[in-house]
Structure formats: structure tokens, C-alpha cells
Amino acid sequence: MKKLINDPKSVVDESVQGFGQAHADLVTVSADPTYITRKDAPVSGKVGLVSGGGSGHEPLHAGFVGRGMLDAAVPGAVFTSPTPDQILPATLAVNSGAGVVHIVKNYTGDVLNFETAGELAEAEGVNVRTVLVNDDVAVEDSLYTAGRRGVGGTVLVEKIAGAAAERGDGLDAVASIGERVNSNVRTMGVALTACTVPHAGSPSFDLAEDEIEIGIGIHGEPGRHRIAMENADGITDRLLEPVLTDLRITSGDKVLLFVNGMGGTPLSELYIVYRRAAQVLADRGVAVERSLVGNYITALEMQGCSISVLRLDDELTELWDAPVHTAALRWGV
Amino acid sequence: MVLDVNWTVKWLTLCAQAMAEHRVELIELDRAIGDSDHGENMDRGFQAVLDKLSDSPPETPGAALKLTAMTLMSKVGGAAGPLYGTAFLRAATSLGDSPEIAPAAWAGALTAARDGIVARGKAEPGDKTMVDAWTPAAEAASQAAADGSPDALTVLVAAAEAAEAGAVATDPLVARKGRASYLGERSAGHRDPGAASSALILRAAVKAAA
After folding, report:
1. What is the 3-state secondary structure (H, E, C) of chain A?
2. B17 DSSP assignment
3. CATH of domain A185-324
4. Residue ranges per structural domain of chain A
5. How many CB atoms lie within 10 A of CB B196?
6. Residue B28, min C-alpha distance to chain A (Å)
7. In angstroms, rounded to a whole number, what is the distance separating the alpha carbons of residues A124 and B82?
8. Each residue of A151-181: pLDDT tens digit?
9. Tens digit of each residue's pLDDT (9 = 90 or more) over A40-58
């Protein structure tokens, strides 16, 4: 294992400290327990947005703290959900009195810890709503699993719900926009290599040189099946088809196309994937109105990508275009 | 053997020792069908329990388990934190303020712990989770406690052996809850890490009485 770290046990703390120093104009980092808040939190009269999850997915979530997106991010250990003793103070710190929305990716640990923190916050008089993100079409059978996972769509939920909160929507309205994004976005991912969790020291699964894993999540957990390596267009088709089928995308639909890197794939390759996906959508009469390409929700240094398609309407498009000023997403400011 | 607060603290200390010793093994089990963090999280959680126990020594077995519950809930993270936290909290509640744990009370505490895990995680026996260790353990302890007038050690051993057998029995199962469930059929052939750590905890209870 070759990594730019000092000690596997201090990876998250040192990384978060550096993040706080680099973006001191945008965020405040609180230590023991660790959470990151928007510099001007709580924003008077505004609904607070809190998300969190295991570390290792950077820039998610801390990179999305700032105007027009999250008010707080709560990082756990690498690939481990944060604990209620972090989530609760983060929730209290961003509550202006208008209530707080928790954006939670659907993993058993995240759900249980946010649920507990939400109950504790309610006991302290804070109104909390939860938006559960579960956009991963790789999980075929929701009945006999823990349900679909929250993956790429999380970034889009955080941006659009964040814009709704920023324009002054109330607690229920912000939660409802978040749920609308979640129900209109689907994602599918692929891994070309595994990733290595610092404290584990060896790759999270073994993949031969000529194999790829289809349907991976963002924790280096293996996917549904592995196949022989194919070219970029072939892999793109395999990812896009189940996304479009599940979302029932038809000719005339307007969409946002999001090609996300898993951390170890160069942007040039992500654009090759984007090219093919855009071509397939155009062939079907689908209008790609907005796009996002880059490493936004990653799995450490894993090579691979995910493709997300979000069905847009006028309001979602307007909220997507609204100004955002965070470490990882910034426009209109 | 009397299961008093000294035994309880010794048990928790041996739990911490077991998690440190088996840290890599639990990480490896989790690497196969999960996300490689279980051994690391349990080790960190139980080391924090040791710190708490020396900072504020508990006066009853129930108080020691409650302290353990709150610490695991705030330090472990993942699904294991809330699940073990709930298990220890329910066990603490079932023991109340009594200074000693009678054999039947141990069986009652394990049953309460199992019920807590089921309520929180919504898993059933056969889903390839820690429930597959706790359910046979609670049943074996209850049965041993009901047989005549057993000594504490007999009941502890019955629970530990049943948990170990339950953990081994998860090997061929296809996971239906937790992160391993995303693997579908490919989760078969691997032991569930949560069931494995549960068996270590109940084996530590035997060692504390030996």
C-alpha cells in the first residue's frame, strides 16, 4: 500500500484539518466530535441541510458545504457512517429555528445513526426531516437486500435541495424537493480496480487485470457480477441501459447527465464515457439539458465511474442553475 | 462463580482484548463481503469502553453495560455501533440495579439484547447477520438456566458455544440484510463479521468466569 498518509488512524482528522485550512473562507471545522459547518451558520430563517457518511468519498460531503448547498457535513471514519454524537451537534449548530433536513444515503449504518441523532434533535426541540437517497439501480432485489444504495444521485439531491433552502423554502418544501430529485434520478457504477482502505492495508476486493466489476457501490464493496474488460462505449452502454429502463426515460424527456469518477480515473476517460452516453440519449430523442462530469462522489483511489441520469422539469433546472459556492461546486457567484 | 460488577468489568476488558486480537481477522471477513471496517470499528469502540470504565468505575453489572452501550453507540459508527449499543442497553435495562447476575438473569439479558438487535436492524434469523449468533445464544442460555439449578459458568458456556456454532452456520447463507446483501448469491461461502464478533463477545464472558 502506497498512500500519502502519516498514520492510518489519523487519516480523517488530518484530511479534515487541511480541508478547513484550505477553505477557511467557506467553512468552520469543529473537532471532537468532528463536523464541518458553513462559515455563516446558522443562516437566519433558512432551513438547515445536514449530510454525512463515511469518509473516502471526497469531495462528498464536506466539499459541498457552503452557500446554496449544505450547511453541515459529518464525516465518519473511512467507509463508516458517523455517530449520533457528531450528527446531533452539527444539526443543532445549523438550526436557525426553521428546522433541519438530514440527507442520508441508504446504508444500514447511516440510516441507524441519523435516525438516532434525529430523535435526539427532536427531543431538543429541532424539527428534523429526512431525505433518504437510494438511486442505485445495481441493487435489483430490494426485498431481499437492505434496499437500493445512495450513490451518485446524492450530489444532485444536495445541490437542488440546497438551492431550495437558499431561496427560502420551508422545511417540508425543502424535504419534498429532495425527495423529488431522488425519485427522478438513477445511477449505475463500474469498477476497473478495487480501492484500499488505509487501516485495512490491502485492496477491498480482488479484480484480475482483464476483469471489471459491474454494479459496485461507493465503499469498495463488490458489485453484482464481474465481466471481462470491454471498451468505453461497451461499458457505458451496460451502465446506461438499466438506468434509462428503470427511470422509464422516453423520447422528449429532458435530463441532467452526470458522469462521476470513482477517484482513480482521469477526466479524459470520463469524457469518453460522457460522449457515448450523450450519443445514446440523443439517438433516443432525449434532451441533455444540463451536465456534470468529474470526481464528486468517490471510493478512495478506485478506477471506475458511475452514470447518473436525472429527469428535469423547469423547477429542478432552475434550482440546479442557482448560485452555489462550495469547495467542490461553484457557479453563479 | 458470582457474576458481579467485577466479573462484568473483567468481561468487558476481555472483550476489548479479543477485538484487538481479532481485529485483522474481522477486517478480512468484512473485506470479503462488506467494506473492511468491522474489526477497526470494534477495536476502537471497545478501547473507548476501557477508558470509560477506568474514568468512572460502575457500581453494578447493569451500570457497566449501560456505560458500554453509550460508548459503543458514540464511538463505533456503521451499523454495528447502534446495533451493539442497543444490545448492551437492553441487557443493562433487563438487569436493573441488582448487584449480581443470576443464571436466569443472564439468559434474560441475552434475550433482551437479541430482541433489541432485531428491533433496530429488522433482521431475522437466517439473514446472515449477528442475529444468527444472538438467537441461538439466548435460546441455549435460557434452556441451560431452566435445567435444574445450574451454575453461572454452565449458562455462560452454553451461550458462547451456541453463538460460535451460529456464527459458523452463517457461512453458507445468502445475506438478506446489511451491506453483504448487495452481493446476493456471492455472499455465500463467507462468515458474517457481525456474527463472528458476537461470538467473541460471548466467549469473553466465559473467560472472565474461568
Report:
1. CCCCCCCHHHHHHHHHHHHHHHCCCCEEEECCCCEEEECCCCCCCCCEEEEEEEECCCCCCHHHECECCECEEEEEEECCCCCHHHHHHHHHHCCCCCCEEEEEECCHHHHHHHHHHHHHHHHCCCCEEEEEECCECCCCCCCCCCCCCCCCHHHHHHHHHHHHHHCCCCHHHHHHHHHHHHHCEEEEEEECCCCECCCCCCECCCCCCCEEEECCCCCCCCCCEEEECCCHHHHHHHHHHHHHHHHCCCCCCEEEEEEEECECCCHHHHHHHHHHHHHHHHHCCCEEEEEEEECCCCCCCECEEEEEEEECCHHHHHHHHCCEECCCCEECC
2. H
3. 3.30.1180.20
4. 10-184, 185-324
5. 23
6. 8
7. 20
8. 999 999 999 999 999 999 999 999 999 999 9
9. 999 999 999 999 999 999 9
A45, A305, B89, B108 from A152: Cα distances, Å: 30, 10, 36, 45
Determine the distance in angstroms separating the CA of A208 from the nearest CA of chain B, rounded to an integer. Answer: 16
Q: Which residues contact A10 (CB under 8 A, 6 or more apart)?
A: none
CA distance B182 to A145: 6
Comparing C-alpha atoms, which of A43, A42, A73, A48 is closest to residue A59?
A73
Rounded distance between C-alpha atoms, residue A215 and residue A225, angstroms: 7
Per-residue pLDDT at B179: 81
Region A123-133 average pLDDT: 94
> CB atoms < 10 A from the CB of A248, how many?
9
Three cell numbers written together for A154: 446524492
Q: Are A112 and B35 within 8 A, CB to CB?
A: no
What number is the average pLDDT over the span A267-291?
Answer: 98
CA distance B13 to B15: 5
ipTM of the complex: 0.72
Q: Give the CA distances from residue A170 to residues A129, A176, A268, A317, A323, in Å, rounded to whole numbers and listed in that order.
A: 11, 10, 41, 19, 19
Domain carrying residue B39: 5-209
- Which of B33, B37, B42 to mutate to test binding with chain A, by most A CBs within 10 Å of its CB? B37
Among A85, A113, A205, A213, the residue to mutate for chain B (most B Cβ within 10 A): A113
CATH number of the domain that residue B199 is part of: 1.25.40.340
Predicted pLDDT of residue A143:
60
Asked if A51 and A63 count as a contact pair (C-beta separation under 8 A), the reply is no
Cβ distance A146 to B178 less than 8 Å, yes or no, reads yes
B164-182 pLDDT, tens digit each:
999 999 999 999 988 888 8
Total domains present in chain B: 1
A57 belongs to the catalytic site? yes
CATH class for the region spanning A10-184: alpha beta
Instruction: Please say if A199 is a catalytic residue.
Output: no
- Smallest Cα distance from B179 to chain A, Å: 7
**Contact: B41, A80; criterion CB under 8 Å:** yes
- Check whether the bond before B172 is cis (ω within 30° of 0): no
CB B25 within 8 A of CB B9: no
Q: Which of A23, A61, A102, A219 is catalytic?
A: A219
